[in-house]
């Protein structure tokens, strides 16, 4: 087993997760089996109770683990399936150590950070690194470990010490450290400064880890003189200083690393059996990056949520929309709308914000209402669903987005004026969304319906079923405490709101569609967790296709993106195809007359 540790310096959020994911992508393109571990030095057991404004979204895995959003980056880039143990927190480590102490496993010894906590970290890494993540039983060849936070943080010290010991435990030829640091360029001088990187590497080396590669993050490409300076002061060869400047998209990062000969370095340093050039997967990645840069047609999607100040709060949703837009040959423009600003109370409180929010909504090509918790902004989400339904605007509701669509339908179609969710109002005869029976109202963490579960399609004609490839069963990841009230299902279906997908026991409503609408779909699960750059999620693909007017032609072609059915082919809109057909027939007629 080879281990690649990715650390960061100067500032947090410097892009360690993208660097780790890109390294994995390159190695996987060369036929190397990859796994990944994210270490978060906070005391929380997992990310499940975090506000999205703390660390961004909570990412959910197949086994129900609520983890850091970087594991979503790993899964999307490397197309692997991780488990909850692939996310290590200080809370998990201390919990396991204290549990052993209570059982007497330490035989009465004084339990200390060194060696007991550091040993627990090393044992955890070794155990998890051997678990297959590619859908087969093969043990991975390389484990990429990202240490969250910044070198020097007091919370991360036990982990740094653990890896100082770990490099000798697994031998030097099996351990490599990549240190990601910032090279700022102040506007006053325009000069790229290396002092922060020098200080960061000096501190890392003082703690017992010497970086094999120094990845310099910068706004612009780094000059050769700056690279040489980093090499001289950070005790690495010049070719071991890698520049990753701000790119047009994150899909450029693996290509940027490959251009700087990082693979030959891995081959020599770790003794990996790597080909001279990566395989076909990386060429497809290149096509993806080129397509992102070359797209000129724009699709505008209104995202109506309540955590819009931080884009990372909806990072998986943004990526899923982008994946779908890219294969449709469109550039995505997300219009973030604070759902509170769509409510009638905002019209009196701040009419300017109210009208600006509605202007954004009305100017969109499609509407997406994501998941969430709490009553704040809920009436604005219901109004967004109502507007999309009444104006035949493509709509996708995810988790809570499905629930607000059902509430709107009950209020304005079934004439249940007090219809609401048990989460926001006392339960009565008009409660259309109820709490699930098995929900534990005690501890908050890990008490929801979590992880991958099956959804069975019924026999009704369904657009979403066709988007999934006319299968009978799909498996998607869930994260919710509330569900559609089964007693309301028949009333909704009589008026055209069909529940086309249900849980295995048939009791839970998983997918709903509105009859006689271009695209009005709600899903109780979170399809964004399984979306991939080269394989977009079907519900999100349906929203984008409907938003650009191509959904019906896509289905008519047997769910192919173009008649040429190649990722590198250029996609034409319905109007463009009609115009091209007209122009060709007109040209033939003119040629015949001549």
How would you characterize the overall build of this protein?
The chain is α/β, with parallel strands linked by helices. The protein folds into three domains: 2-289, Rossmann fold (3-Layer(aba) Sandwich), CATH 3.40.50; 296-438 and 448-561, Class I glutamine amidotransferase (GATase) domain (Rossmann fold, 3-Layer(aba) Sandwich), CATH 3.40.50.880; 570-594. The protein is 39% helix and 19% strand. Strand 3 and strand 4 (66-67) form a beta hairpin. Helix 15 packs across helix 16 (400-412). The radius of gyration is 26 Å and the shape is globular. The relative contact order is 0.10. Mean pLDDT is 88; it is low at 563-594.
The gist of it:
With 594 residues, the protein is an alpha/beta fold. The chain is built from 21 helices and 21 strands.
């Amino acid at each position: 087993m080879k281990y690649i540790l990715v650390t960061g310096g100067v500032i947090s959020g410097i892009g360690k997760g993208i660097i780790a994911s890109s390294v994995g992508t390159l190695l996987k393109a060369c036929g190397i089996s990859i796994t990944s571990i994210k270490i978060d030095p906070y005391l929380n057991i997992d990310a499940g109770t975090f506000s999205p404004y703390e660390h961004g979204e909570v990412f959910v895995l197949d086994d129900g683990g609520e983890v850091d959003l970087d594991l979503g980056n790993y899964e999307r880039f490397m197309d692997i399936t991780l488990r909850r143990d692939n996310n290590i927190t200080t809370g998990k480590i201390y919990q396991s150590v204290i549990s052993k102490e209570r059982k007497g496993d330490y035989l009465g010894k004084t339990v200390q950070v060194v060696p007991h906590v550091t040993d627990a970290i090393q044992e955890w890494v070794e155990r998890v690194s051997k678990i297959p993540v590619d859908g087969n039983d093969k043990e991975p060849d390389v484990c990429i470990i990202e240490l969250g936070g910044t070198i020097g943080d007091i919370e991360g010290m036990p982990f740094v010490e653990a890896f100082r010991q770990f490099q000798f435990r697994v031998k030097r030829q099996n351990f490599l450290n990549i240190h990601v640091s910032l090279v700022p360029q102040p506007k006053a001088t325009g000069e790229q400064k290396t002092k922060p990187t020098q200080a960061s590497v000096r501190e890392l080396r003082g703690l017992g880890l010497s970086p094999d590669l120094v990845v310099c993050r910068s706004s612009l490409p780094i000059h050769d003189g700056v690279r040489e300076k980093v090499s001289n002061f950070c005790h690495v060869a010049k070719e071991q200083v890698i520049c990753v400047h701000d790119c047009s998209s994150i899909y450029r990062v693996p290509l940027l690393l490959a251009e700087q000969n990082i693979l030959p370095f891995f081959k020599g340093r770790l003794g990996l059996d790597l080909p001279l050039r990566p395989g076909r997967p990386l060429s497809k990645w290149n096509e993806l990056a080129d397509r992102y840069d070359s797209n000129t047609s724009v699709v505008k999607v209104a995202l109506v949520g309540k955590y819009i100040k931080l884009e990372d709060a909806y990072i998986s949703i943004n990526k899923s929309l982008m994946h779908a837009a890219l294969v449709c040959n469109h550039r995505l423009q997300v219009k973030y709308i604070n759902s509170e600003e769509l409510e009638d109370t905002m019209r009196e409180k701040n009419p300017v914000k109210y009208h600006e929010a509605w202007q954004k909504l009305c100017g969109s090509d499609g509407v997406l209402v994501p998941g969430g918790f709490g009553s704040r902004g809920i009436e604005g989400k219901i109004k967004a669903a109502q507007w999309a339904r009444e104006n035949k605007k493509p709509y996708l509701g995810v988790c809570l987005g499905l629930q607000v669509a059902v509430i709107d339908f009950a209020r304005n179609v079934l004439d249940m004026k007090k219809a609401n969710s048990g989460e926001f109002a006392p339960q009565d005869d008009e409660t259309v969304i109820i709490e699930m029976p098995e929900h534990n109202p005690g501890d908050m963490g890990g008490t929801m319906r979590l992880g991958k579960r099956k959804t069975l399609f019924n026999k009704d004609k369904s657009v979403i079923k066709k988007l999934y490839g006319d299968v009978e069963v799909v498996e998607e990841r869930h994260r919710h405490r509330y569900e559609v009230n089964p007693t309301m299902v028949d009333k909704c279906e009589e008026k055209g709101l069909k529940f086309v997908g249900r849980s295995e026991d048939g009791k839970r409503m998983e997918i709903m569609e509105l009859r006689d609408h271009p695209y009005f779909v709600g899903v109780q699960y979170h399809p964004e967790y399984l979306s991939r750059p080269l394989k977009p999620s079907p519900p999100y693909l349906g929203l984008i296709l409907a938003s650009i007017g191509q959904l019906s032609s896509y289905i008519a072609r047997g769910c192919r993106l173009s008649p040429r059915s190649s990722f590198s082919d250029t996609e034409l809109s319905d109007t463009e195809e009609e115009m091209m057909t007209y122009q060709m027939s007109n040209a033939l007629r003119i040629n015949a007359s001549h």
